[in-house]
Design brief:
globular, binds 5-S-methyl-1-O-phosphono-5-thio-D-ribulose, 38% helix, 315 residues
Length: 315
């Protein structure tokens, strides 16, 4: 397999490395992934995360495994394990299914390279369409992390924001910290710092006040799965942002590639929502063992979405 490098994933001379996103922003630790089981574990603990990235990472690991001599039966078994590593992001299932189809034709390596290169190109296309929605001087709200760490290109929602900045628009980004795992505070803040894009970190419960004070002009988020009717699942808290944006007449855009669209889900109610470990919510603050509900994603109904920014354009 050829060498491929992104912000959070590297394939170099036959070895696969991931940037441990749980250690960011304080430590930039690259881990070598040596087996499909290791990749499953990395995805479970969100060392590798973001809907498009987990799909690409799973594809590269399957190709690497096959190149190292795994039988087709072993690759199939590994694919089954990776496919269910996280239930909401459909990009993962789509990538694994493409790899399984390629396995039959002995084109696993070619397909993994295609999936990687395609994700880079999809990000460019989304950025190109979405960037036009941003005006000079806009103050932009975003939620979770949707940048180079969540894809192998420049990102979905954050890619749009980045392109506007690179095109000379004077923007300011408000970054939701994104409870409970702080992808905004840890990862988006890290990316924006590296890119030199001006931003302010806020806690999730401040977005309403900022909108009421007319300090937010536009909102961009990503998605883990978009149903056939346009309802979109994304990181928990996205729905609250959408409701606030609707109330305050702030345009609210969901940016995603075609690999996130799942026509087999008629509406958002059909999208499986991952529930994660209770300790993620309890943290150090709550009494040990207290009852917790921890859905990792919520669904924003299409009527709250101004438009989807897809790689093909606005929908
Ligand atoms: O649980 P995570 O960190 O994988 O959740 C990520 C998100 O919710 C992103 O917004 C989504 O994957 C789209 S980003 C390209």
């Amino acid at each position: 397999m050829k060498d491929m490098v992104s912000m959070g994933l590297r394939h170099e001379r036959g070895k696969l490395f991931v940037l441990d996103q749980q250690k960011l922003p304080h430590q930039e630790l690259w881990l070598e992934c040596k087996s499909p089981q290791e990749m499953v574990d990395l995805i479970h603990r969100l060392a590798v995360r973001g809907a498009p990235l987990i799909g690409v990472a799973a594809a590269l690991e399957l190709a690497r495994y096959y190149e190292r001599g795994a039988t087709k039966a072993a690759v199939r078994e590994a694919a089954g394990m990776l496919r269910v590593a996280r239930p909401t992001a459909v990009n993962l299932m789509a990538a694994v299914d493409r790899m399984l189809a390629a396995l039959a034709a002995d084109e696993l390596v070619k397909m993994a390279e295609t999936i990687f290169d395609e994700d880079v190109a999809l990000c460019e296309d989304m950025a190109c369409h979405g960037e036009l929605l941003i005006k000079d001087g806009d103050r932009i709200l975003t939620h979770c992390n949707t940048g180079g760490l969540a894809t192998v290109g420049i990102g979905t929602a954050l890619g749009v924001i980045r392109r506007a900045f690179e095109n000379g628009k004077r923007i300011h980004v408000y970054v939701d910290e994104t409870r409970p795992l702080l992808q905004g505070a840890r990862l988006t803040a890290w990316e924006l710092t590296k890119l030199g894009i001006p931003f302010t970190l806020i806690s999730d419960n401040m977005a309403g006040m900022l909108m009421a004070q007319k300090k937010i002009d536009i909102a961009f988020v990503g998605s883990d799965r978009i149903a056939a009717n346009g309802d979109a699942a994304n990181k928990i808290g996205t729905y609250s942002v959408a409701v606030l944006a609707h109330y305050h007449h702030v345009p609210f855009y969901v940016v995603a590639p075609y690999t996130t669209v799942d026509k087999s889900c008629a509406t958002g109610a059909d999208i499986p929502i991952e529930e994660r470990n209770s300790d993620e919510i309890r943290g150090e603050a709550a009494p040990r063992g207290c009852a917790v509900y921890n859905p990792a994603f919520d669904v924003t109904p299409r009527k709250l979405i101004t438009a989807l920014v897809l790689n093909t354009g606005l929908a």
